[in-house]
Design brief:
489 residues, alpha/beta, 19 helices
Amino acid sequence: MSRRVLCFDFGASGGRAMLAEYDGKKIRLTEIHRFKNRGIPVNGTLYWDILSLFGEIRTGLVKANRSGGFESLGIDTWGVDYGIIDKNGFLMSNPVQYRDKRTSGMTEEAARLIDPRRLYELTGNQIMEINTAFQLLAEKKLRPYILENGFALLPTPDLLAYMLTGEISAELSIASTTQLFDPNSLCWSEEAIEALGLPRRIFPKIVRPGESKGFLSAELCGELNIPSSEVAAVCGHDTQCAAFAAPAREKDFIFLSCGTWSLLGTVLDKPLMSQKAAQLNITNEVGMDGKITFLKNITGLWLIQETKAYLESLGKEYSFAQLEELARSCEGFTSFIDPDDEQFSVQGDIPSRVAAFCGAANQKVPESLGEIMRTIYLSLAMSYRLALEQISECTGKKYSNIYMLGGGTKDRLLCELTADVCGIGVTAGPVEATVMGSAAMQLLRCGAIQNRDDVPEIIRNSEELHEFSPRKNYDKEYEIFKKMIIEGV
């Protein structure tokens, strides 16, 4: 008899509710609800509309119940963002988006409180201004009353689960994105929290993937006229769900979770927090079974998504497929940007910034939209190769294949360029890797899947994968890109 679970997957640009049905050999996904998600600027501050997102969950629950029901549900989102509730359970403020400018200068502020090298030793997290630790320093500076009166800090998936159940906890993987979590002991880092002057009381108990986040509240079930269901603790961080769904046959492999952010890394048994890893700013996050994903955060499809959004604001409608085709038509054009340059991290006119970056770097300035898109695509692939080299340098291992996961796998040009530039094969799929990972975790919890080691084969059975082999050598171009990024020329 088939088993059914419900997966809510929230990305920085949109989300969906999907029913996953397992027949003993493969998982079949059915999308029952899809919605957009975008930061909302209000008087200079960029917020998430968390109540709207909760409303989408309510809609998804009703649709899932009408579609035959489900045994449990899981929630995953992007990392680092959060909400804080007070002692009475009220949300104290609409969550602020990680791209908001309030964290500017907070890494320097943190460095006055704790040596960055020590902070890395404690948490293993890549130092990025968007991280929760630096957002909380901004709270101390700009809205101290939030921390003074806060009762519990809830990362985004845990905040949504709290709204469903009334239960307070933080899931392991999403907690490990905060730069306030110890990946060795798998608990909050007391030293990091104290050094940054944050109130220890707001950091809730940790639950692990495969445990429970509680049950849908009686009030909610009555309002929606649905039966009670368990909210299972899946990996709250979408990257960890995706990594769990990598259809790898090898023990040592590289995954590339490609969505708004691109996250390239490998899976290790324990944290790797060497001096070299710290120097290269590579992060350690915790996934299923306490495994460590040793990875690099790279600005990803955001550059393409935001270009599309900007063009739409001008009344120019392009599909993603049309933008890809424009980039493909300009194969001979070669200029680069640094995708992680801070000027590309905020909403707005990405095309003009790409052209300005190239001009400032004394490169050919892209003029047409196709040349702009080609520059973005090629720069992303170059960034993947740089991250791959850095991961390999730290682990001492060579990798023969990249398992490319998520929405980026639908972009054939990106898959081709990744294989070409990195010089190794690419296995693309599953497209819905995050949902597949969430579903597999829930199916393990309920006993439908009995052996964790069976998951990669089940994923391979469930979706067609596409193989890409290198066709063109980009070594010369890569050396130019690498010199530009590392030496700033």
